[in-house]
Amino acid sequence: MSGSPTRRPRVAVSRTALPGDGVERLADRCDITAWTGARPPTPSELAGLVRGCEGLLVLGSDRVDAALLDAAGPDLRVVALASMGYDGVDVEAAAERGVVVTHTPDVLADTTADVAMALILMARRRLPAAMDALRRGAWGAFRMDAFLGLDVHGATLGLIGYGQIARALARRAAGFGMRVQHHHPRRREDDELSRWVPFDELLRTSDVVSVHTPLTEETKDMIGAAELALMKPTATLVNTGRGGIVDEEALLTALRRGEIHSAGLDVMTGEPRTDPSDPLLTEPHLVVLPHVGSATEATRAAMVELAARNVEAVLEGHPAPTPLPGTPSLPGRRAQRAGQNASVISAQP
Ligand code: DGY
């Protein structure tokens, strides 16, 4: 590691009990301070943890904003997210302070696409409702008209966004005999898995609409009452992206009015949702999961491992393997402008 030969770099980690041995291996070369509380740290607790550190490893649900970056102090060089999504990061504030921010693409696409496929199957075939009835002793006799759902094979899947997870889902859908179409605002290309269609056409013609965009100012509430009204009454909406892209009130209304058939959510606003009477958790035609898209032992370990490799690379003076899209992989230098406190960035050679 670069820096003083007498002092090892200091790295804060916002949780303990992270899967895999990524953090353990980082501890061979850095002094790690990990949050050991049973609940996640509050923003001020995280700020206290990171004070004076050169590196910070956090989860996607931790907020990384200007206040946290300033609390860390001028030595902070890298913030590594053990997540692909980075809607909790103030990217501009990090850039202004010359801090590299990294995330974990590639390692979780297939695992998350598995859960998207599971939600499609569960919601369309009403499998959780059937299992609940069985567990309540309410199976009764075999009936031809009981537990009826809608077919997945032969249905048209519409992907909103066409990144790694959407393409991994498209590959699975092909195996289920689904037709696949997608909408991406800029990349208007067809490929061997899917054809590009305009947004409204996707909503009107898909049997399953699956959301795969990041949460940004543009995508917030992108699926609201108007969009749900365009969908088929037999359609299923699935969201494994981020809560906030789908307007949840509008979704509940559409489900209750039968404007769409069903929905499956792995992500919600205001996570974690803990009130068992929460309408989002009790709506019969809605299947909900507690943000488990990437939750396999191997994938979560790979995410932590990649985050740890990003920290290690930057602290050793190498480019981060997976910086956020469009951001630098090496830290910048803070330089004081004459007569001002503002910092400006110049790329490190
Ligand atoms: C991700 O990687 O973005 C998942 O949602 C877990 O945070």
Explain how this protein is built.
There is one protein chain. It contains 12 helices and 14 strands. Helix content is 31%, strand content 16%. It has a 7-stranded parallel sheet, with helices on both faces. The chain has a 5-stranded parallel sheet with strand order 2-1-3-4-5. Strand 1, helix 1 and strand 2 form a beta-alpha-beta unit. 42% of the residues are buried. It folds into 2 domains: 117 residues, NAD(P)-binding Rossmann-like Domain (Rossmann fold, 3-Layer(aba) Sandwich); 180 residues, 3-Layer(aba) Sandwich (Rossmann fold), CATH 3.40.50.720. The protein is α/β, with parallel strands linked by helices and 349 residues long. Helix 2 runs parallel beside helix 3 and helix 5 crosses helix 7. The C terminus is likely disordered. Bound molecules: (2R)-2,3-dihydroxypropanoic acid (DGY). (2R)-2,3-dihydroxypropanoic acid binds next to loops.
Features:
alpha/beta; Rossmann fold; 2 domains; 5-stranded parallel sheet; disordered C terminus; binds (2R)-2,3-dihydroxypropanoic acid
What topology emerges from the helices and strands here?
Layout lengths: L9 E4 L8 H5 L4 E4 L8 H8 L4 E4 L7 H7 L5 E4 L9 H6 L3 E3 L6 H16 L2 H9 L20 E5 L3 H12 L3 E5 L11 E2 L2 H7 L2 E4 L13 H6 L5 E4 L8 H9 L5 E4 L13 H4 L3 E3 L8 H19 L16 E5 L6 E5 L2
Parallel strand pairs: 1-2, 1-3, 3-4, 4-5, 6-7, 6-9, 7-8, 9-10, 10-11, 11-12
Antiparallel strand pairs: 13-14
Helix pairs in contact: 2-3, 5-7
The chain binds (2R)-2,3-dihydroxypropanoic acid (DGY).
(2R)-2,3-dihydroxypropanoic acid binds next to loops.
